[in-house]
Design brief:
The complex is a heterotrimer of chains A (669), B (220) and C (318). Chain A is mainly alpha-helical and 669 residues long. Chain A is built from 25 helices and 5 strands. In chain A, strand 1 and strand 2 form a beta hairpin. The radius of gyration of chain A is 27 Å and the shape is globular. Classes of the chains: A mainly alpha (669), B mainly alpha (220), C mainly alpha (318). Chains in contact: A-B, A-C, B-C. Chains A and B meet through helix 23 of A and helix 4 of B.
């Protein structure tokens, strides 16, 4: 029943895609397509939520599509139900947002047909139960999102972003195909149930882990495979960027968890070390790159890389605990990772919606041309502020809870037996703490330069408030952020069947704890009560405000800002994004990006201004991609010679090959 | 407080590692010498405590040597020589202080892992002291490798030798600790003197004391 | 009955931190003045300053937004809630289970986040300087603090502050290297977070030397009073934290009687006075560091904290 409902939603989305082709050039096209997507995603969300909370039996279905001897298997177990909730919640929010945002789109025929197909592809990946359906849906998802990235293809940057995305996505699918091939083994059992039951040699398991890290990791955005993400995510329209960052990366995480934790069976401890090391580097490099950006959407895309690193830290810890036979700790780590998946889809979508609103209102994505928008777009600014506070892990919002759970999992690690893990886990903990603090700095910069201060350009001075649909979507997500932060016990209990299925243990039931607090391990170790913290802060603030307004003065006067005696300074004298990031660039930049600053001073008497050049190199491009690109180009140039041979040379090639084959035959017989 | 001897020995050995990190952090020559004096003082305290709990009175002599010679005489002498010869007082490093400290952390982790795995059959107090001692030796080597200034390289070598003395005193019943430490101290004295003889010869083209006497008037 | 008793202790703690905070600032200023051969203002001067500021009119920049007006209340509320959860004269506070040490640090981080935003709000360069430098210092001080928390949690077996304080007061804690390293790191972080010399100068308003003062340059009247009170509360919080963890003698246990509570209160006041004295001596003896030496200083604290955590991971006896 559940499965049929979800498949019906997928079918509805595909029909909406066809409708999109038909109605794209009419005015009614946008509300129809997005409205149908909204309804389909909401139905999918409710169905999946009911399946997850009720813990009913796992429905399976085999349809006679696809390969004739295999069919198409579908299944919704606890893990799939949770990720369906994430996908459909993100999809519903994006569709609601797009009802308002999509009306400003100037090439709707490039966006409308592919958007519902993208949603359908993501849903199909999550419910697929055999390798063929999984890969087909994965590739469908990649291609539709590529089409959406190329929607504004007249811009050369977007074309380059699309090309790199296509190359990386194909590479990822190729790696996953090899991984599934290895898992299926010589018997060729492609159904997941067969793979789950099979026994895998350690060497095969190691190869599969590497291939899945390359395949799913590149889609999720692990360093060094993340390079397509900051190019492609900003290039798409904003609701699609929200889906790509907030939801598609989570589908990649689903793929990783499904293969490594479910199909591979018992993990080895060094697998955990590899994942933890990659995740730690991803976290710090993601946020450092984000700090150096002044394009709002690119900043958010790099920040997605950091959050994926946090999710993979939780997954790596879960792998390590499972390998050390510590099931409760593994359940805690996995729950922390999945909670962060949920949280990130909420606040990253909210932030991308805010960036889209700013783009619509001003036509600018560059923070250096904005400023003072809090006066012109107060409601959007408020929702964006909630998103910024949530992503910086400030209590009592939801970002803090998932980070707190990850820290509690790290504190359980001294009990592991292997030396490598004992040394790596505290280092990863330090990297996580460092990235949390840097993320707060990043979002102070993003919010402060874009929304606060004085407007730097004409468009910023004349921005208009966003439309009602976009605001509704943003406020719903902001409310969910607050609710997930205040009532985390419900989310943890909802995740219990997932960890029970994958690890074999679950966290203690949170519903019985007093005052809706959460106790991850035992009450004597640690507990946290989001609701009480929220109430305390609220009460303290209100009491203070009331006392002061009763007993102290409440006079107020407006006056010009303090200007040190030089009045009427231009808005360009206030801090820009680059100047805000400069101290952090000085501290970390030399190591992380080979940041170099060069000042050119004209000689005295020359009236030209002095200029400051900051050069940042992306070391991942320099060390990985540039050599690969170079060697591919050299090889291609070399092989290209074969295009231009004379007829005599072609004949001699054929002749030489014939002679060689005859020789081989002679030696072998 | 349970295990007071164990904990105090640990605390002093850990304090020595902390002092080695502080040596890596300095960027001025005089404060480097002051921290080195503190390093030698902590070493003296640690060796004296080991003498106390191991009932080995000859270690008191080693502690006294560390205190007198390394904590007081050598830093004072180096300070006077630096003043007299006008050596450049800022320390240039090969990589920044941040990466150096990170490398130091990795070296401490490495020495922990190596020592605790290799000595799994020994007494706990000796094992962990040896781990700290190896960490101090490696940090001293790191300091020698990442500094361009000759004086700071000598200080790095001396802190390395302090780590060796810590290891020697921690291992119960090691013979000739006193003699070895005296020999090392003499070696260090020779190295320090040698460096400054080279400096003098570079500057004045001679180490002949009669010829150097002639220059004394001009330097006033 | 026990519930009312515990509620009364918690309530008394909340009022006590609020009343003592300006006094600690006044004491430190007086001690610094005395050490530089001046008479110095009276210890009660900060209270008089706060009263005066509360009575004055707020002068608001023309383009300041609603965020600018709300932030002082937010900062004060977050800092007060955090300070009310740190055991001062008694452990076992009624609501200590609702926020552990990590949550307390995160509350202080949210106060800092909003203060940095308020610094960017008016759109002058002063606020920008303060906010960007504050976030740079915080990007290193917060992980150093978290590493210290990890070390303490691994020693005491819990992240609840009351449990940690009770454990440190019990005879089962030994002298441990990790605790020594954690103490060093915590002192350095406390100096950095409270904007004292050598990181920042709380007494000047020159761009070269200010971080915290630059962010609050535009505030006046009751808003400034709230921010100053919050800064005083933060200093008190850090002093109480160091006292209850590393010098827990005299602190009353959970559900203690009136006599133990009075002894705890007296011990607490003495510890605050000693901490203030030490801070004043340290600030007078040392000069302010240049701005880009500060990250190396706090980075050293991060390394020390990481080393302490690493040692606890490697062996339980460190």
């Amino acid at each position: 029943m559940t499965l049929v409902a979800v498949l019906a939603c997928v079918a509805t989305l595909l029909i909406a895609s066809v409708l999109g082709v038909a109605t794209a050039r009419k005015r009614a096209g946008t509300p129809i397509v997005y409205g149908v997507s909204l309804v389909a995603c909401t139905v999918g969300l409710v169905t999946a939520l009911a399946q997850l909370m009720s813990g009913a039996a796992t429905p399976t279905l085999v349809l006679p599509l696809g390969l004739p001897w295999l069919g198409a298997h579908f299944r919704i177990d606890a893990l799939a139900a949770f990720f369906l909730v994430v996908v459909d919640l993100g999809g519903a929010a994006a569709s609601l947002y797009a009802l308002g945002y999509g009306t400003h789109e100037d090439a709707p025929q490039r966006v409308l047909p592919f958007y519902p197909a993208f949603l359908a592809g993501m849903n199909l990946v999550v419910i697929a139960d055999d390798a063929f359906t999984f890969l087909l849906s994965w590739e469908f998802m990649s291609l539709t999102s590529w089409a959406l990235v190329m929607a504004h293809h007249r811009d050369a940057d977007n074309r380059r972003a699309g090309f790199i995305y296509l190359v990386m996505a194909s590479f990822g699918t190729f790696a996953l195909m090899l991984a599934f091939g290895l898992l299926a083994g010589p018997t060729g059992g492609y159904a997941f149930a067969v793979m789950r039951a099979g026994h895998h040699e350690p060497l095969i398991a190691a190869l599969v882990l590497t291939l899945v890290l390359l395949g799913a990791g590149s889609k999720a955005g692990l360093v060094p495979l993340h390079v397509w993400l900051p190019l492609a995510h900003p290039a798409a329209p904003s609701h699609v960027s929200a889906l790509m960052s907030g939801v598609m990366t989570k589908v990649a995480v689903y793929g990783f968890i499904r293969i490594v934790l479910d199909l591979l069976g018992a993990p080895s401890w060094w697998a955990s070390m590899v994942v933890l090391a990659l995740a730690g580097i991803t976290t710090v490099m993601g946020v450092l790159y984000a700090l150096m950006q002044h394009d709002l959407k690119r900043l958010l895309a790099y920040h997605t890389v950091e959050n994926i690193g946090i999710v993979f830290i939780g997954i790596g810890l879960a792998l390590g605990f499972k390998a050390n036979a510590m099931p409760l700790a593994a359940a805690l780590a996995l729950t922390a990772a999945l909670f962060h998946v949920f949280n990130h889809s909420l606040f990253k979508s909210l932030l991308f919606f805010g960036a889209g609103s700013v783009l619509n209102a001003t036509g600018e994505r560059d923070m250096e041309h904005l400023g003072g928008l809090i006066h012109r777009m107060p409601l959007a600014a408020f929702a964006f502020l909630v998103g910024c506070a949530a992503i910086s892990a400030l209590p009592p919002l939801n970002g803090f809870v998932s980070e707190w759970l990850t820290f509690q999992a790290i504190l359980l690690s001294p009990a592991v037996a292997q030396w490598g893990l004992k040394i790596l886990v505290p280092a990863v903990g330090a990297l996580l703490a460092l990235s949390a603090a840097l993320a707060a700095a990043c979002f102070v910069k993003a919010y402060g330069v874009t929304f606060l201060g004085r407007p730097r350009t004409f468009v910023a001075e004349n921005a208009k408030e966003t439309d009602r649909f976009s605001l509704a979507a943003m406020f719903i997500l902001a409310a969910l952020c607050l609710l997930a932060g205040i009532l985390p016990g419900f989310v943890i209990d909802a995740l219990a069947p997932v960890s029970q299925a994958l690890i074999g243990a679950r966290m203690p039931a949170q519903a019985t704890d007093p005052w809706l607090s959460i106790v991850p391990i035992a009450a004597s170790r640690s507990s946290y009560d989001g609701l009480l913290v929220f109430i305390f802060i609220g009460l303290a603030g209100l009491i203070t405000a009331a006392t002061i307004h009763r007993f102290a003065s409440h006079a107020l006067r407006r006056a010009p800002a303090w200007d040190c005696g030089t009045p009427d300074s231009s808005p360009m004298t206030q801090y820009s994004a680059a100047s805000f990031a400069q101290p952090i660039r000085r501290v970390y930049g030399a190591l992380a990006f080979r940041a170099r600053e060069r000042v050119t001073m004209p000689p005295p008497g020359d009236a030209r201004p002095a200029t400051l050049h900051v050069s940042l190199r992306d070391l991942v491009w320099d060390w990985f991609y540039a050599p690969i690109e170079g060697s591919v180009a050299t090889t291609a140039g070399y092989v290209n010679q074969f295009q231009f041979l004379t007829i005599r040379k072609y004949l001699s090639l054929v002749f030489a090959l014939l002679v060689v084959l005859l020789l081989v035959l002679a030696i072998w017989l | 407080m349970p295990n007071l001897p164990f904990d105090t020995a640990h605390l002093l050995a850990g304090g020595l590692v902390l002092m080695s990190f502080t040596l890596l952090y300095q960027d001025r020559l005089y404060s480097l010498l002051n921290i080195y004096a503190l390093h030698a003082l902590v070493l003296a305290l640690s060796v004296a405590w080991q003498a106390n709990i191991q009932d080995a009175p000859h270690l008191y002599v080693t502690a006294g040597l560390a205190l007198g010679f390394k904590a007081i005489i050598i830093p004072l002498a180096l300070r006077r020589i630096i003043e007299r010869l006008g050596i450049h007082r800022e320390i240039e490093t090969v990589v920044g202080i941040g990466p150096t400290m990170l490398a130091g952390m990795a070296l401490v982790a490495l020495s922990m892992v190596v020592m605790l795995r290799v000595t799994s059959a020994a007494a706990p107090i000796a094992r962990e002291d040896l781990a700290f001692a190896l960490a101090v030796v490696l940090l001293g080597l790191l300091m020698m490798v990442t500094r361009r200034n000759a004086v700071s390289q000598v200080v790095g070598f001396m802190s390395l030798e302090n780590g060796l003395i810590l290891a020697a005193s921690g291992a119960k019943g090691m013979p000739l600790v006193v003699e070895i430490s005296v020999a090392f101290s003499v070696l260090i004295a020779f190295i320090v003197i040698g460096i400054f003889l080279f400096r003098i010869r570079e500057r004045f083209d001679t180490v002949d004391l009669a010829a150097l006497d002639q220059f004394r008037g001009e330097r006033r | 009955m026990a519930l009312i008793h515990d509620a009364a202790v918690q309530f008394a703690e909340m009022l006590l931190v609020l009343l003592l905070a300006p006094g600690l600032i006044g004491f430190v200023c007086k001690a610094k003045a005395r050490m530089t051969r001046r008479r110095g203002a009276s210890i009660l001067q900060p209270y008089r300053d706060l009263m005066r500021l509360f009575r004055k009119e707020v002068v608001l920049a023309e383009n300041a937004s609603w965020l600018f007006r709300v932030v002082p209340y937010l900062i004060f509320a977050a800092t007060w809630v955090a300070a009310a959860l740190v055991p001062t004269f008694a452990t076992g506070l009624l609501f200590s289970w609702s926020a552990d040490l990590i949550a307390i640090i995160a509350l202080l981080a949210s106060a800092r986040f909003f203060l940095a935003l308020a610094g960017m709000d008016v759109g002058t360069s002063f606020g920008g300087i303060g906010s960007s430098r504050e976030m740079m210092i915080a990007s290193l001080a917060e992980p150093a603090m978290l590493m210290t928390v990890f070390t303490l949690a691994l020693v005491a077996g819990s992240t609840q502050l009351s449990t940690i304080a009770a454990f440190m007061n019990s005879p089962s804690v030994g002298l441990s290297v990790s605790l020594g390293l954690a103490l060093f790191a915590l002192i350095i972080v406390a100096i950095a977070e409270n904007a004292r010399i050598p990181i920042d100068n709380p007494a000047t308003h020159l761009e070269l030397t200010m971080v915290h003062e630059a962010m609050v340059l535009e505030y006046s009247g009751r808003h400034l009073a709230l921010i100053e009170l919050a800064a005083a509360l933060k200093l008190l919080l850090y002093a109480s934290l160091i006292a209850c963890i590393f010098a827990p003698w005299g602190i009353a246990g959970a559900h203690a009687g009136a006599r133990a509570l009075l002894i705890g209160a007296a011990a607490y006041v003495v510890k605050l006075a000693i901490a203030g004295m030490l801070l004043a001596v340290f600030e007078t003896a040392i000069a302010k560091m240049r701005v880009f030496r500060v990250p190396q200083f706090i980075g050293a604290a991060l390394m020390l904290g990481l080393l302490g955590t690493l040692l606890r991971f490697v062996s339980g006896s460190f």
